[in-house]
User: Which sequence fits this backbone?
């Protein structure tokens, strides 16, 4: 299946996305350090089953503009990008699938504008309140974030030894090549790290609200960064229903390591809209 590549202007940001299929809209939002390409095995599967699939490069990534200011990556701007993309495409409503940072954006969108979303699938990342209250074990899993918060130092460490950091995150050379191609251009690695630097406020209670959109949370048991508790406890923050699915033997990038199982879950949940 051929993916169509498009650009739209969203509040002055040139945003790139790929799309395929016709039918109810589903927006796939990636996280760190990905681009729309992480969904390459989900887009055809969903499009073939009657969905209009839209996979953007989030701001700072891929072919989408990368504003230089750290504050430009605050969660409110990330959410505004998706709502603006929907407006440009004439979409009153859509379903969301978000992984990693894309999951956090999805939770925030469902808090802020529930009337715009049919369903939400959170991959890896639970509700922000559940993450913040998941305990010491979860906080210890986030050790790497302390390094990400250090300008220049973090960029140097990630590039060191021929991007050793990226090569340790996966055993898939083709995925490392995709990450490197996306992060090597000037300013792109800093843009990706600015997601962490601009959003420390997400750990504060006044940013937490219940979600009024049906949610499915999918967690993989070989995820080194996010534990199961933060996803399980998300049920307490979902007023329109919460379905939990556990993918055994899958790593953080379940789109690649558990493709068939994940695609089946997505189709089952999204079809019930």
Assistant:
């Amino acid at each position: 299946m051929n993916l169509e590549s498009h650009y739209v202007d969203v509040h002055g940001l040139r945003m790139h996305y790929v799309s395929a299929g016709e039918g109810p809209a589903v927006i796939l939002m990636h996280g760190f350090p990905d681009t729309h390409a992480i969904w390459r095995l989900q887009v055809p599967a969903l499009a073939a089953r009657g969905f209009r699939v839209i996979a953007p490069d989030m701001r700072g990534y891929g072919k989408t503009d990368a504003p230089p200011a750290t504050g430009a990556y605050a969660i409110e701007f990330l959410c505004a990008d998706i709502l603006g993309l929907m407006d440009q495409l004439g979409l009153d409503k859509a379903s969301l699938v978000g992984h990693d940072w894309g999951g956090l954006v999805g939770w925030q969108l469902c808090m802020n504008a529930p009337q715009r979303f049919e369903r939400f699938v959170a991959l890896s990342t639970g509700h922000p309140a559940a993450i913040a209250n998941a305990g010491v074990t979860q906080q210890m899993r986030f050790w790497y974030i302390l390094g990400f918060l250090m300008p220049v130092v973090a960029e140097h460490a990630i590039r060191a030894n021929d991007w050793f950091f990226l090569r340790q995150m996966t055993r898939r050379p083709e995925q490392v090549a995709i990450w490197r191609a996306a992060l090597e251009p000037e300013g792109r690695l800093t843009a990706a790290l600015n997601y962490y630097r601009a959003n420390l406020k997400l750990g504060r209670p006044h940013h937490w609200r219940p979600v009024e959109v049906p949610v499915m949370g999918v967690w993989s048991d070989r995820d080194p960064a996010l534990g199961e508790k933060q996803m399980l406890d998300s049920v307490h923050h979902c007023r329109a229903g919460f379905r939990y699915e556990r993918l055994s033997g899958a790593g953080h990038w379940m789109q690649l390591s558990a493709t068939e199982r994940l695609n089946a879950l997505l189709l089952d949940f999204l079809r019930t809209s």
Observations:
- The longest helix spans residues 153-167.
- The chain has one domain: 4-271.
- The CA atoms of residues 83 and 113 lie 9 Å apart.
